[in-house]
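hey so u asked for the seq, here:
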Amino acid sequence: MTLNVQQQPRRLFQRGRRLKRIRLLAQEIKRIQPDILCVQELFYRRSREVLVKELSDLLPYVYLDCRCGKYLVGVNSGLAIFSRFQIVEEGLMQFKTHAGVDTFARKGIMKIQVHDDEIGGDLTVFNTHMQAGIGSTPWPFRVLDRLRGVAKLSSDDLSQAQARELFDVVMMVEEDHGIGILAGDFNIRASEELFHAVETELNAMGYYDSFAEEEHEEEDEEPTTVIGKPDRRIDFIWVWNVFENDGYIDDTTNTWAKITDHYPVFVSLDHSVNDNNT
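ran it, structure tokens below
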């Protein structure tokens, strides 16, 4: 399961609202009972603490990014991965190319590897949150972008650069590492040309969009943002070395709109490990 939880850094008078939403989110997650949970925008420290505590029985193994942002100011990446299986390896790579408000966050690619006989070996999970649009960047960040020499880069330029960094990381998964999962908020619409370029590259590496594999009709494209238009599917789960998968977006209830501005995306996997399926 992947979900952008919209827990922004601390702001005046918003503390109670964020904590109320994160508790509601924990209730929904416990109702769904995922084995692996990738979240984005878990910036707020108190919200991290509450979510870890609330999910400790269901998802006891957690990899959090609690570091300070770039230049000793700003925030962390907001990324976290919760797992029912013990984490045996973890890491975080920060995007080298970024602009606007994202300059002060450690956005990048988080990775964990778990090993469990129940899943037939190793499972490698990547969680990412890519560059947000820069159309409404506040002027102090525009000045910084000019000083850093990235002011002329468009949103597509930034997304393409980050996608190349992403490819370099996810292609490191070896075939004997079992299953590969790449999830997160890509901030790229499924209807855009850029998405199709990313899809082509990931397909060449053996990764497939779990939702697209279900052969959804293009006119029935579902959004993953609560306030989005029908083509606002920007949250994805890509799977590697999986024989069958069932990907779907949970937009059937109004509950999520009270918790965050994204819908959760799920996938259930069937992976063959000798003669049996698990």
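The chain has a mean pLDDT of 82. The chain is about 25% helix and 25% strand.
lmk if thats what u needed
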